[in-house]
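Regression report. Comparing outputs from two consecutive submissions.

Submission 1:
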Amino acid sequence: MTRLAINRLKERRPDAAAVDRFLARHEVPIVEGDRCTFLWRGEADEVFLVQRIVGLPELLPLRRLWGTDLWYLVLELPVGSRINYQVEVRRGEHVERGNDPLNPKLSYSPVGTSSVCFAHGYATPDWTEPDPDARPGELTELVVQSPALRRDSRVALYLPARFRRTVAYPLLVVHDGDDFLQYAAAKTVLDNLMHRLDVAETVVAFVQPHDRLSEYADSAAHARFLTRELVPRLEAELPLVGQSSGRCLLGSSFGAVASLSAAYRAPDVYGSLVLMSGSFVFTDIGGADHGGGPVFDPVVKFVNRYRARPRRVADRVFVSCGVYEPLITYNRSIVHTFESTGAAVRFVETRDGHNWENWRDGLRDALSWVYPGPQKFVYE
């Protein structure tokens, strides 16, 4: 195997000018096969890579290259991996944590940004980028008065580019709609996938919670809002299929719990579910503390109950999760629960973590399986 760039630099006993040239020649992190070299430059007592790959310590120490102010860490990452990370720098009692100043690539989320490493074999899918040839769908805002939620609920409604009143369309309801639109490029993805005929032309309702940790944690009120208020209104006002084969709920993390919980309460209403990195934490084996705090208590109670007495909640269930997430074990387990009910299940594991780019990258697999292109999809 060719020697790593950092090892070649070490052998030359570099000075500051050599480090300058080294950094000018290489993109950071330096990706060489399955090895990724993370770098930081400056004076410090300790430097750590902060990451959340399950099975590894959250803080991985960087080593200082002797005689220089360059710090490095070589991490083995399988082909196709993508990880978010930050750098923690300690000087005496002072600790700073932030994004990698040597890496311009960023991952975005509602809680801020982080640096991102693309391992060998990962590339941002082209269908997540704007395509000038794809006709754009229309995004409008709808306000639904919800007695169930005791508030007005704002919904962003997507109509496909060639929308016509004479055609019946399937319906997709997306939890955390604003975040999917902003951080997972959902409108661009929909425009592109429908333009390429990967996905059937679909009406999409992006719902937004007021308090997601409450409304999405097995909330009967949220389930009533979806099934008795939102879906009937959309089917009354728009040309929709109007039967279970043309209704799908999609959510990630707590949004996946909300999707499953709503379908559990209305098992004949939704034909498909898309559950991404679901927070399906359970304690029915051994009765151990779930460790998620009080917000997870209703989730754990619901998942324990469902695992004990599973029932078919949809005909088709798409499940995905990153192998670097702590949730991977729970998601692998619940796949077998869904299969035991007779539902058609597709499970996809990604070399990624709990983040919006992971869920964005999974949209084509999910939607083309649930609502495949017009030449394939037949409503029963």
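Submission 2:
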Amino acid sequence: MMRSRYSAFALGLGDYLRATWHASSCPTDLDVSTPPQPKWIGLKIAAVAQQDETHATVHFIARCRVGGRAERLEENSRFVLEDGRWYYLDGDIA
């Protein structure tokens, strides 16, 4: 799930991001196409942990360039399983 969401951010696939974002926390103003958008250049999954049957976390580091400047996003993301599908719930920036 994390890799597909990263790819969706990189490709500007807002509909996919909304479809994989839990309804309780999905932003209404998600914009993945208005410049300046980051150019995503790498993803590292640092850790994955399942808390119980329906909750899991993913610690990741994503690298990007914004206006030619290298940046990184490190987050501990929470996912929830509903109706057989995992949804991104929220995350804490590390």
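Expected: both submissions complete independently.
Actual: both completed, but the second showed a warning that disappeared on reload.
Relevant detail on submission 2: The first strand starts at residue 39 and ends at 52.
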